[in-house]
Amino acid sequence: MVNELSGKVAIVTGGASGLGQGIAEKFVAEGARVAIADIDDEGGAALAAALGDRASFHHLDVSDPDAVGALTDSVVEQFGGLDVMVNNAGVSGTMHPSYVSDDLADFHTVLGVNLLGVMAGTKHAARQMASTGGSIINISSIGGIQAGGSVMTYRASKAAVIHFSKSVAIELAQQDIRVNVIAPGSIPTPLLASSAVKMGADAETFTAIIRSMMAANRPLAREGTAEDVAEAALFFATDRSRYVTATLLPVDGGTIAGPPRPPAGGAAPSSESAPDQPTAEDDLVDTVATTADDVDSQASITHA
Ligand SMILES: NC(=O)c1ccc[n+]([C@@H]2O[C@H](COP(=O)([O-])OP(=O)(O)OC[C@H]3O[C@@H](n4cnc5c(N)ncnc54)[C@H](O)[C@@H]3O)[C@@H](O)[C@H]2O)c1
């Protein structure tokens, strides 16, 4: 596929890193002009420079609806229109061993970025697309579909993104604006390390535990990549999905469908390695398994 987005203008929030970076790269490769909007000035500017003339960086905190409105205004002024809005910026929640011990201190931050940011992005993109139509792509998470025994604030924010997006899609369909949701899962990005930092864990150990849990719960053998998510975003951005709106597409290697069959003659991975006496690493495994929703490990693999 080449130049599927030729002549199109897109905004990608959270485009300086991880999945947003992959989407920005894909869209530029397909001929779009892409505005990367992020709080990470250094990373965003470097990526825009690397992507060349068709990319630009714009500082944006998506949790400020007025700033989101100003950004869409300025992109339309600069590029002459807006065809695709990817509301991707997101943050992980702070991890706690249990919900009762969750002080809810990050509630406003997580909801502000993950939900208000998506709602503001949708509103201001729709305002710009009112006479032309367009495609709005909101990034949720399989943690917003699958209930689990942890990171309630993050899960709530991502579940709300799905419900909001389907609801607003009904209204915006009248203006030929399509709204669809991608729910990634099992894709290591810098978000994973940020989760470790927030729970005070060693990033390397934490990442290794999470990746092995994701592998145990994922039907497709390999880990996902930002490119995998970008392919889904490209589908929703182009006319290939012209009759598709208000849908939810997991991009998770099949994780949300359920875990694969355990190896013949063996027990499930979680019980296979369970020692009689808990160790410090087991405590981390427990906490991670019940809280590591940034990469959407499933509660079913919680260390027993
Ligand atoms: N990686 C996964 O497996 C996975 C799974 C499910 C959902 N997601 C979702 O995908 C999206 C991208 O996550 P990622 O894994 O690429 O993480 P990431 O940390 O690599 O990227 C997130 C980006 O968002 C930016 N950002 C954070 N707060 C912002 C704000 N207030 N305003 C503007 N930009 C802000 C960050 O600077 C960063 O560039 C998030 O919404 C995340 O919840 C990721």
From TrEMBL:
Keyword Magnesium: no
Keywords: Lipid metabolism, NAD, Oxidoreductase, Steroid metabolism
Pfam (any one): adh_short_C2
Matching InterPro entries: NAD(P)-bd_dom_sf, SDR_fam
Domain of life: Bacteria
Start-end of Low complexity biased regions: 264-275
Gene Ontology MF annotations: oxidoreductase activity
Family (UniProt): Belongs to the short-chain dehydrogenases/reductases (SDR) family.
Protein name: Putative oxidoreductase
